[in-house]
Amino acid sequence: MDFKQLRYFMAVVEEGTISAAAASLPLAQPALTRQLQLLEESVGAPLLRRSRRGVTLTAAGEAFHRDVGRLLSQFEQAKCNARRVSEGQMGQLRLGVTVMHLWVPRITQLLNDFRHQYPAVTLKVVSLLSGPQIEALRHDQLDAGILFFPPEDDPGLCYHPLYEDRLVLVARAGSRLAQHPPRRLAALNGEDFIWFDRSATPTYHDRLIHAFQRAGFTPHVVQEGTDNATMLCLVAAGMGCTILPEMTMAGAPAGVVSHPLEDLDMALPLTLVWRRDASLPAVHRLIDVAESRELGL
């Protein structure tokens, strides 16, 4: 039994006679008759009653006709789904996003635009810091990521810049630093400072430390946070001050303020990253959306 035999059977039922079905397919009538016989042998039951006036369905044929109709419909849907997946119109896209970007307007708008253009693609958004995102991409646990400072020496990854952020001093509202904001990093020497462990995102950590060293600032670390959201909460609780990307203030708790510093000019390029050998078409559709937003299309 094959799908051609099933289609021949459905054509005969629809046309009412083997001759009419042979003409509509088109197929020689003896060949069609033979295919119907082979189908009935495969099923193990007679499906059609032949007469001079045409063909009618047996009881087995009626049940078979119902089931074959559903099967062929599902087969057509399966072909359609496969085509849509191959075109990036359907499927699932695993996207990594650093925790504080989940409510940053530029990122939420990118995700909204993608959802609007490709509603049948399910976005599985995973909140991860930049370092773990890179590892997840390398091990095919993510399809794409939105992060800071992807490794420049990894030929297996591709990048598209989304926008550039800047670093700011974050302090508790009402604190001395909030009331009299310093102009330069060195003025923070001796202040209680909230930081994060290097293992969480080594490249970002090292670039910040180098920027601090160039400005003559050595952090007096009294608390560590696992991510930007935690660090903001620790600042709000009066545990100390910290340095964070300005866009994280979009999700800052009440009682936290930020100020720029003159010598803290390290740019933070937020980047869409994916594997060079990415075979999932939906990844390339996301790239298309990101590029069209940059061009204002």
TrEMBL record:
Keywords tagged on the record: DNA-binding, Transcription, Transcription regulation
Listed Gene3D superfamilies: Periplasmic binding protein-like II, Winged helix-like DNA-binding domain superfamily/Winged helix DNA-binding domain
One Pfam family, short name: LysR_substrate
Chain ranges of the HTH lysR-type domain: 1-58
InterPro entries hit by this protein: LysR_HTH_N, LysR_subst-bd, WH-like_DNA-bd_sf, WH_DNA-bd_sf
Keyword Transcription regulation appears in the UniProt entry: yes
Superkingdom of source: Bacteria
Similarity-based family: Belongs to the LysR transcriptional regulatory family.
Name under which the protein is recorded: LysR family transcriptional regulator
